[in-house]
Amino acid sequence: MEIENVEEASKSEPIVLFEDADVLVINKPYGWLVHEDGFNKNAPTVVDWFVGRVPEARDVGEQGYSPKGDELNRSGVVHRLDRETSGVLILAKHQEAHQYLKELFKDRSVYKEYRALVYGRMNDRWGTINRPIGRNGKDHRRRSAERGAKGVLREAITEFERIGMGEYLDEPFSYLKLVPKTGRTHQLRAHLRAVDRPIVGDTLYGDYKLENSNNLEIKRLALHAHILELTLPSGAEERFIAPIPQEFEEAAERIAE
Fold first, then answer.
1. 42-45: long-range contacts at Cβ-Cβ below 8 A with a sequence spacing of 24 or more?
2. Mean pLDDT on 206-227
3. Which residues lie below 8 Å from residue 32, measured CB to CB, with a gap of 6+?
C-alpha cells in the first residue's frame, strides 16, 4: 500500500485547543514540521503559522541549528512532534513562559499520552519498555534501542497499555496507549521497533513490515499525541486533548474482536 504523500496531507492547518497570555496549544496536523529542519524547504511549519498568528512571539526560545550549521527559526517551541505525528503541542508566547515550560519538560513534570496502531500482537496487556536509546549505526536519520546502538546511550522509558488487538485480512495488529516517561528523539518509534512491534505506516522504523502488509488501510504514520497534562505558567492545572483521528478509530474497529 502507498503511504500518503506528506505534502498532500499538510494542506490542513493547526487547530487551536487553548490560548491565554502565555501559551498557545494546538492539534498539530500530520505532515507539518514543528520548525524548519534545513532540508524540507517547502514543508509547512508550525513556527511559521504561530509567528503569523502571534507576531510578538518571534525569536522566543532558543536558537537552533541544522546539521549543516544553518540557523533554524524555533520561535515558541518547547517540545516537538515528528512531522509524521499529529496531536497536541504547546507553544510559548514569551521568554518567561518558554523558560518555565522547558523546566517542566526537563523535570518530567508533564504527562504525555499517545495512541498508536502497531504490527503484530502485543500479548502483554500492560508493560514498560525500558531500553536506552542511541544512534543507529547504519542510518543517521534513525535512533536505536537495540544492540549495536552507537554514541551516548540515554535512558528511555515507555509505558504501554493494550487497548485492542485482532486481525484484519488475516494479519495481526494491536492498538496501544503509550506514555513516554522520558523525551528522547523518536522514542516511541524506536522502542516499538526494538520489541518487533513497529508502528503502522512507519517508513523509517517499520520498513521491514510495511511492504508486505495491508497496513490496516492507513496511509500515514499511526501515531497521535492524544493528551498533554501540565501546570501552566498562570498556575492553572490543565489537561489538553487532541481528538483521536477518524482513521485511527476506523482501524481500531477493523481489528475489534
1. 42/7, 43/6, 43/7, 43/10, 43/83, 44/10, 45/73
2. 96
3. 10, 14, 43, 44, 45, 46, 49, 83
The torsion of the CA quartet 60, 61, 66, 70, rounded to 10 degrees, works out to 40
**Residues 125, 121, 255: CA angle, nearest 5 degrees:** 95
Ordered domains of the chain (ranges, CATH): 6-254 (3.30.2350.10)
- What order do you get walking across the sheet with 150-154 strand by strand? 143-144, 133-135, 150-154
Residue with cell 519498555: 129
Residue of 20, 37, 48, 82 marked active site: 82
Cα distance between residue 116 and residue 109, in whole Å:
23
Angle at 168 between CA 167 and CA 171, to 5 degrees: 65
Catalytic-residue membership of 107? no
Bridge partners of 238, per DSSP, are 230
Grid coordinates belonging to 169? 485480512
Locus of grid cell 541544522: 66
Strand runs (DSSP E) across the chain, as ranges? Answer: 15-19, 23-28, 64-65, 71-72, 86-92, 111-119, 126-130, 133-135, 143-144, 150-154, 157-168, 171-180, 223-231, 237-241
The grid coordinates listed for 164 are 485492542
pTM of the complete model? 0.92
pLDDT one-digit tens code per residue, 29-59: 999 999 987 666 678 999 999 999 999 999 9
